[in-house]
Amino acid sequence: MAAPAVEGATVTALRAVLHRVRLAAERSGRRADDVRVVAVGKTKPASLIDQLYDAGHRRFGENYVQEIIEKAPQLPEDIQWHFIGHLQSNKVKALLTAVPNLTMVEGVDNEKVANNLDRVVSNIGRQPLKVLVQVNTSGEVSKSGVDPSECLDLVKHVKLGCPNLEFSGLMTIGMPDYTSTPENFKTLYNCRAEVCKALGLIESQCELSMGMSGDFEQAIEMGSTSVRIGSTIFGPRDYSKKK
Q: Which is nearest to 175 in space by CA: 212, 131, 220?
């Protein structure tokens, strides 16, 4: 009897998050529809994702290639999958071939992975893939992402040198204790301003994916257009089952 209770709690948690997103969007003078919520099911079973799907949610994310490869075939084909974080170049082909409904890669952090994504998209004949350039706004050595000073160069490479990729914006992961996220979010906001000015884009053409379970409301108030929510919806991670 425990499993249905957990699944019911997950749907309830999603509705609570969507309510908080709406309020945060209104505080920033926007509508809830202006902010995408990606439910990140890292370490959680496909059955929980299916519960959220039945409740009407369609955007889901994963951080590990093996997990998304295993889960995606078990779930409805109209799910819009996001791969989030650093993607190793040698796993690009496996990811794209196994998940035809992959909507976006949030985490292009170097030219090599951009080139590999571009080549594989072309080889398998799928529609251009949306990508976000990952920026390391906290300066942590452990974090993936380009330095803010190198952001524009990588964006130019994606837009001008990767015809099978669709540059859609920027993403960042803040400090784990959230103490410096306002600074991190402002840095990404400034990177977008630089990119848009240099490439003649309007800001609505350049998404800002920033904000997770502990700081998504603040991120929305600072301009985020996409938040990635995991544990607040799904509960604590269970890494004991991670391969």
A: 212
- H-type helices in the chain, by residue range? 2-27, 46-54, 65-71, 92-98, 111-124, 151-161, 181-199, 216-221, 231-234
Structure tokens at 71: 């889960």
Q: How far is CA 176 from the centre of its chain?
A: 17
Nearest residue to 178 via CA among 217, 236, 235: 217
**Tens digit of pLDDT per residue, the chain (243 long)?**
344 555 499 999 999 999 999 999 999 999 999 999 999 999 999 999 999 999 999 999 999 999 999 999 999 999 999 999 899 999 999 999 999 999 999 999 999 999 999 999 999 999 999 999 999 998 888 789 999 999 999 999 999 999 999 999 999 987 766 666 789 999 999 999 999 999 999 999 999 999 999 999 999 999 999 999 999 999 988 776 554
Q: What is the spatial distance between Cα 138 and Cα 242, in angstroms, rounded to a whole number?
A: 27
